[in-house]
């Protein structure tokens, strides 16, 4: 997870997606160069399929806006129906698990720990 403001977060996201897509293209190209590599691909295709599913940007679709009085998920503009459904599921899970209340409670607790206790009855000199 990365916490950032929108502009630099979008740059990081696009760079990561582009790098993953390019590595996938390089791997596909190399796996098709010889018959031995093609055979290796056939034997390992289950692993490649699992890796592809883990790297599918639709399955991690949606950036969460924090600091608002509600749940806001920003879906990627170029996603399809499956990617949008993952973003909706993310919002649903956030509501179901009461994420806003948990964040508020955590911030209140950390704020009270960070504020130094004042001396009782002491006069400032």
Topology:
Elements: H1 6-31, H2 35-55, E1 63-64, E2 73-74, H3 81-96, H4 99-114
Antiparallel strand pairs: 1-2
Can you walk me through this structure?
The protein has 125 residues and is mainly alpha-helical. Helices cover 63% and strands 3% of the residues. The chain is built from 4 helices and 2 strands; from the N terminus they run H-H-E-E-H-H. It has helices at 6-31, 35-55, 81-96, 99-114; strands spanning 63-64, 73-74. It has a two-stranded antiparallel ribbon with strand order 1-2. A hairpin with an 8-residue loop joins strand 1 and strand 2. The longest helix is centred in the N-terminal third of the chain and has 26 residues, at 6-31. It is elongated, with a radius of gyration of 23 Å. The N and C termini lie far apart (47 Å). The mean pLDDT is 84.
Give a short overview.
The protein has 125 residues and is mostly helical. 63% of the residues lie in helices and 3% in strands.
Task: Using the CA coordinates, give the radius of gyration.
Answer: 23 Å
The total beta strand count reads: 2
What value does the average pLDDT take? 84
Percent helix: 55-70%
Structural class: mainly alpha
The rough form would be described as elongated
Supply the number of helical segments: 4
State the strand order across the main sheet.
1-2
Largest sheet: 2 strands, antiparallel
Beginning-to-end CA distance, first to last residue = 47 Å
